[in-house]
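Onboarding guide, step 5: your first structure request.
Type a short instruction followed by the sequence, for example:

Predict the 3D structure of this protein.
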Amino acid sequence: MGKLVYIIVDGMADLPIKLLNNKTPLEYAYKPNISFFLKHAAYGFPSVLGKLAPQSDAGVMADLGYEPTKYSTGRGWFECLGLGMDPKDGELSVRVNFGEVKDKKLSSVRTYLSKEELRLLETEINDKVKLPVDFRFKIGEGYRAGVVFTPNKHQFSGYVSNNEPGYTPKFYKNGKKLSFATPIKDLKIHDIKPLRREAKYTAELLNLFIKNVIKVIKNSEVFISRAKDNKPLPNYLFLRDAAVRDPHLPAINEKFKRRWAAITGMPLEKGIASAAGIKLVEVEESQDINKDFSEKAESVASTMRSFDCVYLHIKQTDAVSHLGKYADKYAIIEAIDRIIIGRLLRELNIRGGDTLVMTCDHATSCELKRHINSNIPVLIVNRKFGQNKDFGEANCRKKHISAIRRATDILPFVVALK
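The system replies with C-alpha cells like these:
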C-alpha cells in the first residue's frame, strides 16, 4: 500500500431535502474533482452505532477502527485532552458549552463567541470561581470549552446526567460510557443528576460549578458589552459526558503498522488522535473557509511526504447542519471538492498505490437540526477498483462493499488493500 489520505467530514451525511430536488447536500453538490477519482472507486455504507444516533466521539473512534462501546469512558476525557489539559485518572473531565437561557427555558445550547471574548471569560472563570476542589477551565472553539476537576476528599464518578438537552448518556456493563443524540422535547433547564448513589457528590459539584460560573459571567465585561449590543448572551453552561478514566486506546501505528499524522484544529478530534498515538500537525481553525481549506490542503500535501497515513478532519458541515443551513452545507462540500480534493489530485498517485478515503463520523440532518442514526457514505479510491457513479448516500446504499458493515470495518479493509 502507498500513501493513505483519510478525510472525515463531520456530519456530512444527511437526508434528502425537497428543495434540493429530493437529494442530500452531498448528492446535490457539484463535485468534479471527486468525480475524477471515481475512475478507481468503491463505496461503503456502514452503520456507526446501530440504532443509536452517535456523537462525534463515537463516530471518529469508529472511523479510526476503535469500537466506541469498548473504549469510551466519556467524551469529556477526549475533549480536555485535546485542549491540552492533560487529564489524569481520577480527575473529572467535562465538555462545556456556553449557551443562552431565557425565562428559565432553553434558547440555545450554542452561543458563539469571538476568540477574545472566550479568552476573557476563561480568565474570569479561573480567577473568580470558588469551589471546594481545584479546577482548571479552558476555552475551545466558538462556544466550546472544557473543565477538569481535581479530587480532594471525595472520589468522582462519571455516572451523572448531562444538563445539555439532546444528548443522553448510556452506560455499558464493562463500565464504558457514551452519549447519543436525541430530539430536544423539553426546553426546561434541569440540574445535573446522579445516576448512581456514588455520583451524588459529583452531581452536586457540577451544579455548584454552573451556578458560580453564571454569577461570574453575568458580571463580566463580555456579558455587559454583548447585552448593550443586543447580542446572544452566554448566560448558562451546558455540561455533558463527564469522564474519570483514561480510555487507553491501543496505539494506531502498532495496530495498523503504519505511521499516522492528524490535521485538525478541533479539541475533540485532537484528543482522540492524541489518545490513539497519532502525531498532531499544528493547524488553526479559520472562519474563512477558503483560507481554512487551502491551509489544510497544503498541510496534507506536505505531511503525507513524511507519514504513511494522514487523517484530515473537517468540521464546518456539521456546524451548518445544526443550524438547518442546507445551502451552506452543499456549498461547503463543493469547497472541499474544489480546494482539498483538487489539491490531492496533484499529490496522490492512485495507479501507483496511493489510497483516498472520504467519509463522515455520523449523519446530521439539516431539517431536524440534529444527529441521526443513518448509515454513513464511504468513498474508497484505490487502483484495485473500477469506475463508479456519483458519490452520495443513494449510490452508496445501492452498491457498497459487503465487508464494511460497521464504521469500525473501514480502516481494516482499507489498510489490507494492495
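Each response can be followed by summary notes, for example: Residues 165 and 186 are 8 Å apart (CA to CA).
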